Amino acid sequence: MFEAKESPATGGEPVNGADASGRLGVDYSTAVPAGVTPYARHVPEEWELPQQLTELPIWFAWRLVPGDKKPGKVPVSAVDGSQNWPNLNKATTAARAIQYANDHPHLHGVGIVVSPDTGLIGGDLDQCRRDTGEPTDVARSIIEEADTYTEVSPGLGKH
Fold first, then answer.
1. Cα 16 to Cα 4: distance, rounded to the nearest angstrom
2. Taking the complete model, does pTM exceed 0.90, yes or no?
3. Cβ(20)–Cβ(129) under 8 Å?
4. How many CA atoms, within 13 angstroms, populate the side-chain half-sphere of residue 10?
């Protein structure tokens, strides 16, 4: 279940669809989509994202940059194209971020701002997938216990 109680991103109001405990009652699978290639460009369709988050102004596009051991992700504002910004005023809805990323082929995907200001938290499991792309037993256990939205990152991990 995805949990999103009151959030500054929603003006302190509960996220639409949440019950009194803040749970959304959404079941997300731990299955890895077929054909996922590490670091490949992937701009999702809006229906692939948690509906409860798509209208929140927390979304940005991103591009890959070379790194020492693996590429890094640089956030790009779909509002004004600025980069390396931590400012929520430059974030937007999922639809606008998706459109911006689709209009700019050098961008690799979209993501959300995870900070105390959004009321959202995230995690990152590294080296957690088998050669088949499926999560390891330990990763699957963590994902199932967290009982939350999970996605495959552009690298080899899960978020």
1. 9
2. no
3. no
4. 17
